[in-house]
Design a protein that fits this description.
This is Golgi SNAP receptor complex member 1. The protein has 233 residues and is an all-alpha fold. Helix content is 91%, strand content 0%.
């Protein structure tokens, strides 16, 4: 009966102990996410609570171990031979429970100590980083200025390359247009060379038309004069 009572009490204590370790880790993670300058280990109350609960659980484990030893002495006594098998089974069950609780306690305690050690290490590293940043602020500003100037130079180079590519494309277009103008000029020269022959032909035709008109007019005039002379005589 005492063993069952201690086991129930140990079970509740171990659950609370595990929750304490989980809340310790989540609290540290929340502080790390919220701010880089917040101290990681400013909740010493959790550390004191951890130490107190660990001592209390160790005392309960010690009491349960003592009761298991007394039950083992009782089963080995000469006055209970008929109930020896059943008592050995009960004793083995309580020993297994004690072993499980002891293993769980040491595992949770080791996890808590590992988390605390990691947080202490991260806290010291963050402090070193902050001190380095505060001590090298001027260098950081100069580095930022150099990086900005370098970025400006890269942008200028990119703009120059784009301008050169546009100029090359314009040059190619002008070259192609010059070729087209040359071909048009050659065609115009060809047409100009052909036009004089056409003009001379047209002039000849006009001269013949005028000569024919003069001849026809002269014939008509002579015939008219002859008719008038014939009419008056």
């Amino acid at each position: 009966k005492q063993a069952r009572q201690l086991e129930n009490e140990l079970d509740l204590k171990l659950v609370s102990f595990s929750k304490l370790c989980t809340s310790y880790s989540s609290t540290r993670d929340g502080r790390r996410d919220s701010s880089d300058t917040t101290p990681l280990l400013n909740g010493s109350s959790q550390d004191r609570m951890f130490e107190a609960m660990a001592v209390e659980i160790e005392q309960l484990l010690g009491k349960l171990t003592g009761i298991n030893d007394k039950m083992a002495e009782y089963t080995n006594s000469a006055g209970v031979p008929s109930l020896n098998a059943a008592l050995m089974h009960t004793l083995q069950r309580h020993r297994d429970i004690l072993q499980d609780y002891t293993h769980e306690f040491h595992k949770t305690k080791a996890n808590f100590l590992a988390i605390r050690e990691r947080e202490n290490l991260l806290g010291s590293v963050r402090k070193d980083i902050e001190s380095y940043k505060s001590g090298s602020g001027v260098n950081n500003r100069r580095t930022e200025l150099f990086l900005k100037e370098h970025e400006h130079l890269r942008n200028s180079d990119r703009l120059i390359e784009e301008t050169i590519s546009i100029a090359m494309a314009t040059k190619e277009n002008m070259t192609s247009q010059r070729g087209m103008l040359k071909s048009i000029q050659s065609k115009m020269n060809t047409l100009a060379n052909r036009f004089p022959a056409v003009n001379s032909l047209i002039q000849r035709i006009n001269l013949r038309k005028r000569r024919d008109s003069f001849i026809l007019g002269g014939i008509i005039g002579i015939c008219t004069i002859l008719l008038l002379l014939y009419a008056f005589h």
